[in-house]
Amino acid sequence: MTTFVELAAEKESADVTDWAARLGWVVGLLLFIALVYWLMREGWKWRGTLQSDLPELPAAPSDPGPATLELSGRYHGSTTAGQWLDRIVAHGLGARSRVELTLSDAGIDVVRPGASDFFIPAGQLREARLDKGIAGKVLAEGGLLIVTWEHGEKLLDSGFRSDHAAEQAEWVEAINTMIKTSTTEGTAR
């Protein structure tokens, strides 16, 4: 029969944590995460360089006329028209932000706190529709207001989401009516 003293002598104490190895793994992981973020940032800057042929964004006219509709919500970004994953990052168009939209006879005034504002002239508007996604944001069918417009020689889709989703259909109807009216007036002359 073994005594308690013999049993206690046979047992080894628990392994002590190797803090140097653990610290090395943590530092290595943090450096890897920093490298990934740096590469993502460089990719974003490279995309902006590739899109440098896009002209400066138009500013709102001093007197755009009375507001037809107003909307507050979120701006989710712009893409090449018809290619919902080809994000445009030049001139700040890739930055998500809050947005205040104002539709007038002159066009759409896009005011973005913390990001660059821009104006979409009525003559540059091509289409408005409700869709489910744009680069980096996918919602239920009809969750995004997508405005297609011409900037320079490129067609862009810009995605907006209203704080009150019911008003997005009204925007689609108003913009498409404005486009049809300006097209009809342009061909009548």
UniProtKB/TrEMBL annotation:
<keyword id="KW-0812">Transmembrane</keyword>
<keyword id="KW-0472">Membrane</keyword>
<protein>
    <recommendedName>
        <fullName>PH domain-containing protein</fullName>
    </recommendedName>
</protein>
<feature type="domain" description="PH">
    <location>
        <begin position="54"/>
        <end position="175"/>
    </location>
</feature>
<feature type="transmembrane region" description="Helical">
    <location>
        <begin position="20"/>
        <end position="40"/>
    </location>
</feature>
<dbReference type="Pfam" id="PF25362">
    <property type="entry name" value="bPH_11"/>
</dbReference>
<dbReference type="InterPro" id="IPR057446">
    <property type="entry name" value="PH_bac"/>
</dbReference>
<keyword id="KW-1133">Transmembrane helix</keyword>
